[in-house]
Design a protein that fits this description.
This protein is an alpha/beta fold. It has two domains: 89 residues, Orthogonal Bundle (uronate isomerase, domain 2, chain A), CATH 1.10.2020; 261 residues, TIM Barrel. α9 links the parallel β2 and β3.
Length: 408
C-alpha cells in the first residue's frame, strides 16, 4: 500500500473537516503555468508513462543527476522505458523531497495506482499507466477536465500569434495567454501594440523573470507597469533565480533543464523604488511578487503593506511558494509569513508553474497543507472554531480570491 490515504497530511480533526468539506472539491484557477497551448489545442495523446511524467520535468531530472544517473537516461538517447526505470529506482531515496509526494499523488489520482514507485514496481506501473493512456480520458484536455480546472494562463512570448489559444474558445476550461517580455533584452517599439493584441485574445496578466534589479530593468518595468495599469492587467514578478549555472550542461541541454538555483542579490531597496515610482504616477497595477530566496520572505511580506490600496482586496500579493520553495516546509513558511505580516484571508492561492499535465495534484498538496496549518491554529485555540468564517477563508484561498482578483 502507498502513503496516499483520505487524510494524508491532515493531522487533526479540524484539518480533516476543513479539507474534506471546503477545499477538496473546489475548482482550480492555474494562473501561472508553462503548459503548451499547442498540446492543449491538439488534445495531445501521451505515448507512454515517460512522455507524461518525465519528458519535460526538470525537477525530476535534477534529482536523477543527484543520484548518479547518467545524462543518457535523463535528457539523452536512452529509450523511454530505460529512462522511466532509472527514475523509478531513485524514488525510495527521495524521502522528505516533495517529488516523492507529488509522484505518489499523480499515480493515485490519475491512474488509481496505490503502490510506491521503485525499481521493483517500475515495470508493473509502466504497463498499467501505458494501458490506460491508450483509452479515453487521458489526453491533454481530458486530464485538465479531470483536474477540475476552470482557467489556465500559459506563459507566452509577446510576439506569439496565439493561434492555438484562438482555437480553444469552445473548450470548457478557459486557456488564456500571459504576456512575458524579456526585460533583460530590448523592449521593442511596438510592444504596446502587442499588449493590445494579447488583450483582445483574453490576456489579463503579464509575467517577468527578474534576475537582477539593475537601473535598466527598473526603468523597463516602470514603463511596462504603467501600460499594464491602463489595461487593468496583473503584473507578476518572479524574482531571484540564478539561471544556467552549469555552462557545459547549458550548452548541451539548453535552458530549463535543471541547472538553476537560488540567487542572493539585494531586493528591498530596488523593489521599493520600482513600486513607489509606479504608485507616484497612480500607475501601480495589481502585482504578484514571487521570491525564490526564503531569506527574503519578510522583505516581501512587509513590502506588500506599503502599497496596498482600496478598493482592491490584497492588491499586492505575496505569490505562492515558488520553485525550490514548492514543498511542505516552504509552503508553511510562506503561509505563516503572510499570516504574520499581512492578511492570509486575501491570498490568491496556489499555481502549478509546471509543464506537466498531471501536476494539478500540487493544488491538492497545497490545500492539505493549508487546511492542516489552519486546523492546527484552531485546535490550539489561536482562532475560533467558526466554521462559517473558516469556510470563507479556505474557499477564498483555494479559488474564490483568485477568481475575484483576476476577473478573467
Amino acid at each position: 500500500m502507498g502513503i496516499i490515504n483520505e487524510d494524508f497530511l491532515l493531522k487533526n480533526k479540524t484539518a480533516k473537516v476543513l479539507y474534506h468539506e471546503f477545499a477538496e472539491n473546489m475548482p482550480i484557477i492555474d494562473y501561472h503555468c508553462h503548459l503548451s497551448p499547442e498540446m492543449i489545442a491538439n488534445d495531445y495523446v501521451f505515448r507512454n508513462a515517460y512522455d507524461l511524467f518525465l519528458s519535460s520535468d526538470h525537477y525530476k531530472w535534477r534529482q536523477m543527476r543527484t543520484m548518479g544517473v547518467d545524462e543518457e537516461y535523463i535528457t539523452g538517447s536512452a529509450g523511454d522505458y530505460d529512462k522511466w526505470l532509472s527514475f523509478a529506482k531513485i524514488m525510495p531515496y527521495l524521502i522528505g523531497n516533495p517529488l516523492y509526494h507529488w509522484t505518489a499523488l499523480e499515480l493515485k489520482r490519475y491512474f488509481g495506482i496505490d503502490k510506491p514507485l521503485d525499481g521493483t514496481s517500475a515495470k508493473e506501473i509502466w504497463d498499467s499507466v501505458n494501458e490506460k493512456l491508450k483509452g479515453e480520458g487521458f489526453s491533454a484536455r481530458a486530464l485538465i477536465k479531470k483536474s477540475n480546472v476552470s482557467v489556465i494562463c500559459t506563459t507566452d512570448n509577446p510576439y506569439d500569434d496565439l493561434k492555438f489559444h484562438k482555437t480553444l474558445n469552445g473548450f470548457e476550461t478557459k486557456v488564456l495567454p500571459a504576456f512575458r517580455p524579456d526585460i533583460n533584452g530590448e523592449i521593442k517599439s511596438d510592444i504596446t501594440e502587442r499588449m493590445d493584441y494579447f488583450h483582445a485574445c483574453g490576456c489579463r496578466l503579464s509575467d517577468h523573470s527578474v534576475d537582477s534589479f539593475s537601473d535598466d530593468v527598473i526603468d523597463k518595468l516602470v514603463f511596462l507597469g504603467k501600460e499594464y495599469a491602463k489595461r487593468g492587467w496583473v503584473m507578476q514578478l518572479h524574482i531571484g533565480a540564478l539561471r544556467n549555472n552549469n555552462t557545459k550542461m547549458f550548452e548541451k541541454t539548453g535552458a530549463d533543464t535543471g541547472f538553476d538555483s537560488v540567487s542572493d542579490f539585494p531586493t528591498a531597496e530596488p523593489l521599493s523604488r520600482l513600486l513607489d515610482e509606479l504608485e507616484k504616477n497612480d500607475a501601480l497595477p495589481k502585482t504578484v511578487l514571487y521570491y525564490l530566496n526564503p531569506k527574503d520572505n519578510y522583505v516581501i511580506g512587509t513590502m506588500l503593506g506599503n502599497f496596498q490600496k482600496g478598493p482592491c482586496k490584497g492588491k499586492i500579493q505575496f505569490g505562492s511558494a515558488w520553485w525550490f520553495n514548492d514543498n511542505k516546509d516552504g509552503m508553511e513558511q510562506h503561509l505563516k509569513t503572510l499570516a504574520n505580516l499581512g492578511a492570509l484571508g486575501t491570498f490568491i492561492g496556489m499555481l502549478t508553474d509546471s509543464r506537466s499535465f498531471v501536476s494539478y495534484t500540487r493544488h491538492e498538496y497545497f490545500r492539505r497543507i493549508l487546511c492542516n496549518l489552519i486546523g492546527t491554529w484552531v485546535e490550539e485555540n489561536e482562532y475560533p472554531n467558526d466554521m462559517n468564517m473558516l469556510e470563507k477563508i479556505i474557499k477564498g484561498i483555494c479559488y474564490n480570491n483568485a477568481k475575484e482578483y483576476f476577473n478573467f
